[in-house]
Design a protein that fits this description.
The structure is a single chain. The chain has 13 helices and seven strands. The chain has two domains: about 45 residues, no CATH class; about 260 residues, Rossmann fold. Strands 3-4-2-5-1-6-7 form a seven-stranded mixed sheet, sandwiched between helices. By secondary structure, it is of the alpha/beta class. A hairpin with a 5-residue loop joins strand 3 and strand 4. The mean pLDDT is about 90. Helix 3 crosses helix 13. Helix content is about 40%, strand content about 10%. The longest helix has 27 residues. It comes from Corallococcus exercitus. This is ParA family protein. InterPro entries: AAA_dom, DNA_Partitioning_ATPase, P-loop_NTPase. Pfam families: AAA_31.
């Protein structure tokens, strides 16, 4: 994928300024990612800190649009000025493809880190945004659960591996496969926040029940408590009666976790992912882009406020 270009209006929006406030000598007809980062640095326009957040996108049920959502979410965080690491945990390498790359083109994946003790920094790759890095995945990752099985401390391999690089990032975003195994257990143990993309259908309830039972067992057996759990309704079509009924059921049964912002069904969003482009590159004016931005507008203030409260109380940790 070629590096995106941005208009002055888009750049001003990302920086949180008006186009007229950009110094005349720095104005351009089109900006590349490096230009935007240089301008952000010059104007000192960085977003408020939320501490280090390790965020997992996971649903045991497949087909919920999890990868399209997580990759565009991570991309937008980077456009807003956060330093982001996206980790592809799925052997199909869909998150890697959504950034415009092919997993088979990379010699090393997270398998080398967790099983062969390769330093994580040696597997990190650069995207077309200067502040968005990623760890690719390919079919070699399909053997990772089996390889982890006999290892001591196998649940904590990912959490420990991240220690070498996590200070470089504001957000670490994991895109997980729709299954439960040792790799996803590692991701859950490494995460502070869990995002659960669901479709507005009643089949999603079974996956949610199983996932929440798993989270509860982590609290009881491994003493790991997630800071936040966000349920995100994805690909919602308000013209379907069944979808509206399922949404009402989610609002009834999971009100404390369900985000008020909904990702509407968007053809351009789905097409962008299949073409290996985040929706903010393919069509930043689309419903998909608008809805992910709305989701961020809902989530980020919570994270920033929680971090500020922890700092004030003296309980903030390196992990936010």
């Amino acid at each position: 994928m070629e590096a995106p270009t941005y208009s002055s209006k888009q750049v001003a929006e990302m920086l949180g300024v008006t186009p007229k406030s950009i110094p005349s000598e720095l104005r351009k007809d089109a900006y590349g990612p490096e230009d935007v980062w240089e301008l952000r640095t010059t104007l000192n326009r960085f977003p408020p800190t939320a501490g280090l957040r390790r965020q997992l996108f996971l649903n045991f049920k497949g087909g919920t649009g999890k990868t399209s959502l997580s990759t565009s979410y991570a991309w937008r965080l980077a456009e807003l000025g956060y330093a982001v690491l996206l980790i592809d945990l799925d052997s199909q390498g869909h998150a890697t493809k959504c950034l415009g790359y092919e997993g088979e083109d990379f010699e090393k994946t997270l398998l080398d880190v967790l099983v062969r003790k390769t330093p994580l920094a040696q597997v990190v790759q650069k995207s077309t945004l200067p502040n968005l890095d990623f760890i690719p995945s390919n079919l070699s990752m399909s053997t990772v659960d089996l390889a982890l099985m006999p290892m001591a401390g196998r649940e904590f391999k990912l959490r420990n591996a991240l220690k070498d690089v996590e200070a470089q990032y504001d957000f670490i975003v994991f895109d997980a496969p729709p299954s439960f195994g040792l790799l996803n257990l590692n991701a859950l143990m490494a995460a502070n926040d869990l995002f659960v993309p669901v479709l507005a259908d009643f089949l999603s309830f079974h996956g949610l029940k199983l996932l929440f039972e798993t989270v509860q067992s982590l609290e009881e057996d491994l003493n790991h408590v997630l800071d936040h759990v966000f349920i995100v309704v994805n690909s919602f079509n308000a013209t379907f009666k069944l979808a509206k009924e399922a949404l009402e059921a989610l609002q009834t049964h999971y009100p404390e976790y369900l985000l008020p912002t909904i990702i509407r069904q968007c053809t351009k969003f789905a097409q962008a992912s299949s073409e290996g482009r985040p929706v903010f590159v393919a069509d930043p004016t689309s419903k998909g882009a608008s809805d992910i931005q709305a989701m961020l507008d809902n989530v980020l203030p919570r994270l920033v406020a929680a971090h500020a409260a922890a700092v004030k109380a003296g309980t903030a940790t390196k992990a936010g």
